User: Fold these one by one.
Assistant:
Number 1:
Amino acid sequence: MKSRKETMRSYVINLIAVVLLFVLMNVGTRTGLLGRYQTGVLMVIFINIILAISLNLTTGFLGQIALGHAGFMSIGAYTAALFVKYIQETVGITLAQKGNVSPAGTGFFLLSLLLAGLVAALFGLLVGVPALRLKGDYLAIITLGFGEIIRTMIEFFSFTGGAQGLNRIPKTATLNVVYIIMVVCVMVMFAFVRSRHGRAIMAIREDDIASEASGIPNTYYKVLAFTFAAFFAGIAGGIYGQYLGILGATDFDFMKSIDILVFVVLGGMGSLTGSIVSAVGLTILPEVLRSLADYRMLIYSVVLVLVMIFKPSGLLGTYEFSLTRLIDRLTGRQKKQPSAAGKGGASE
Amino acid sequence: MSVPVLKAENLGITFGGLKAVEGFHVEIEQKELIGLIGPNGAGKTTVFNLLTGVYQPTEGAVYLNGTALIGKKPHQMVAAGIARTFQNIRLFKKMSVLENVKVAFNHNMKYSGLQAILRAPSYWKEEQEIDRKACDLLSVFHMEELAGHVAENLPYGQQRKLEIARALATNPKVLLLDEPAAGMNPTETAELMQAISLIRERFGIAILLIEHDMSLVMNVCERIVVIDYGQIIAHGTPKEIANNPRVIGAYLGE
């Protein structure tokens, strides 16, 4: 571990980077450089980043393939959407109207996300306790089944809008607030992974017999990681619903889970910054290729295949990009360090 | 006589109809070093698995300082004070040497997930403390220079030592070593023997050792337990064991 002083320094550097990006983004929206379309893409990027880092906890750090992440996302999405809809329509507080979000709207947005996270985490716990007795392929199948059950249930019940979906959800998600939430999520995830808890989770991935023999309660940490990941997936879902204003159960099918898994695998299992890079890249790529019409999904797939051939461990492997280290290297302040540890928050 | 640190009483396990271990009995005093030997398939590692909670004994019980440890899971056995190493090295391969050791401190650490996320003072205090402790432990094995290396890149002998260091990090009362010298050359074995005696001096813990390297066993162990077909066939000082006809019979065939 680096000294506390050095760590604080890198916290400051990352904070500056975060603020800088925030200012840039706002300059963009104010001057009209970032139009509706661009801000929409940014919003999706932020949501995908949260999804990717949360699944990375289960798949990358705990080492268990989970194919039901969209299920947790949908639980969060519907919880938050139903909550804000109830507030606006039944309680009668105007949260968002024609693109304007009231201060109360932002307040209830945050509250709804917390609720979304908690409900998703509860489901994560309920699924995790029995499912995590299994590992590898078996766990993948069970989580896949769970995701499909959730989707079918949403279509079945009428309070979720059934197969027609849920509409007229107050669009309370604003770009700035979502940005801050995303940054907080990334910071929380980094802080968690770089603690004794994160170490324990990684130890289970490396060797579950040895971790148990080193005093790690495997089951506890597996369920903890799974629940924690579900919590963040719920938050991402909550943002998603209140950004689009409509929700349908088909948004959260098996393919959505696979999409999230692709972010994690491509970015590098066990690298949070890798997840961020690939979430950004893989969200932008199909958009950039839009002019190529039919070929864009082909190119997208080819990119995936090429990365997997030439870098099977993902773009970053388990390496974490560190802004502090980059700055140190550029300014020649740094001596060579063998350990790949850089502290800090968003580095996208 | 004082209460033995570790006592296994009439320990046995049956897999289906097979009695893998039967009536295993051993008492280990503090700082004592006991060897457990026997031909291949005799049940030595099964005894270890019984003592560490990997298997639940179908008969008998394990006592630590006089308290029975019944129905405990492996991580609870570690918390109680029984640590082990493995016959085929099990390190956290992709993690650094330092992290490997730090993992084992986990059950003695207190800060919660929330305190970690908020980077509360207790996080810094405990992390710095175990950083120091882990480095101290590595220096016992002259491995402090390797702290930043990835565990899987270490040479074989160092990996063995790292595994022992990790087991020691759990702060055990008894250490079970499963063939620590397997695959080592004579120099490495000699180094290992030094390290083992150092551990006893410095940490004052009892050690139960499985080993095939007879010169190592005969040299360092005070007492030796010999098992064959899951049963104890001899028990005594190295000298007694070396001249015991049943032991010679078990090893060479009658």
Number 2:
Amino acid sequence: MIIAEGLTKRFGDKKAVQDVSFTVKPGSVTGFLGPNGAGKSTTMRLIVGLDRPTSGRTTIGGREYRRLTAPLTEVGVLLDAKAVHTGRSARNHLRAMAATHGIPSSRVDEVIELAGIGAVARKRAGKFSLGMGQRLGIASALLGDPHTLILDEPVNGLDPEGVRWVRQFVRHAASEGRTVLLSSHLMSEMAQTADHVIVMGRGRVLADAPLDELVRAWTRNTVRVRTPRAADLAAAVAGPDVEIVSVQPEVLDVVGLPAARIGDVAAERGIPLHELTPTTGSLEDAYLALTGDAVEYRTKEIS
Amino acid sequence: MTVQPSAAAPVRTTNGHRLTFLSAVRGEWIKLTTLRSTWWSIGIVAVLTIGIAVLIAQAVDIPGFEPIQAAVMPIQFTMLLAGILGAISVTGEYSTGMIRSTLAANPVRGSVLAAKALMVAAFMFVSSLLIFGAAALAVSFVVATRDQSVDWSDPSASYLPILVASLAMAVFSLLGVAFGFILRSGAGAIAATVGLLFVLPIVASMFGIAGEAWQWVSDAARYLPMAAAQSAIIPGTGLDEPVAYLTLACWVVAGLLGAWTVLRTRDA
């Protein structure tokens, strides 16, 4: 269980994190979303005591990180940037980390195998590709077999096999009752991995809800209809709560009516339907709707 | 996946692994000894020490010159390597991001500082002991050609200077560690270390010819780390022995206190 209470972090004039409170529960995967610069990484750094909060506090299992008697066995941390000396081999890095907690080197070899870096474990970490570095970071997070995992962009740079491995791993960890907080910009990946989502924007928590609830609340269900008599159908289904967009001459997107109702109306009037596809909103849609105003570094729309 | 898993029992890891100061020191030992730069530094110290010691032993043959002095005199050059080794043991962690792993594994900042300081100092002390010992051996071979010898039955003419010089090397490495934590940047910490150990004494010596009004500069310079170390290694020069030791201790304490003040509050 990770609890943040009124967390605020100021860097000079800039408030990176403002009055952030949330609870990450054990037994589920909590996704941490937000645009670049939203304060996700800072919040994670505050949780593990790398940065000091300007005000507020965070606890893990009821204690501040710096009060933990065996941090590595309680919390596995993977932070965004590489946190490994480039001149040291992966295995020696893990040995040094393990030694601080009296973790035997047999466990070092175990996490090396687990993370799939056996072939490069004796190479210097500076020579690692992004994906290999990421795997090494995950390996060190797992060293102490911790009950809480804090992973900042764990799939960043991983190959598809690695992405799937991380997904299955955190799902499995959560099913064992562990607490998992992970951030990612890959919405489809997050949609498959997380049970619960915390969305940050401009240093604040914008949403904190179960994933399906969040998607429902922030997206609209659309029904795509293809018919040669588009105008007739549009007239037939029109109503005060119904929004109809003509995508192509024969294609309509209808918002506000269930697919079955549209089909019934069409049947009553003898309007032929060539396609009737209900589409539910995705996490990506919900995320973009939520963070629309909170994006710090916006890209230009390509027209 | 949006299915809430049924409430699972929270996992309690009871594997008995704990963070202790001793294990933190062991972690630092592995970190120090698994970097090539460490062994390069020690290697250069060894080559310089033994090489210069042999040269001095061959060149200096005057009454009152104890051969053991030749073995410890190279410290005037190798002190820089001791300081640099200490500095990069810290700044290397900052430049690579390793410090985040270090602080995540050991969130008690004071303990991180103490473990690293202890390990670097102990490592430097033992290496120096071996290197100065080897240099003394080499020197005794050189002076044997003119029927002189290192008198191992007289501590002050044999192992005592070696011991104190090794201690001084440990002190210099600690100053490097302190600058490393305070400045974080490799270039900055090395510049500060070299400045304090090497440049300041030269600057101060320039005031030696500046007349009575500037005498205080020369007096103060005797308390610089290298000058104090020399007074401790070869008694009778500069400061009194106890004062020299106290001065070195003060440098270490001041440096580490400064490092701790910075480390305990600053974001990593």
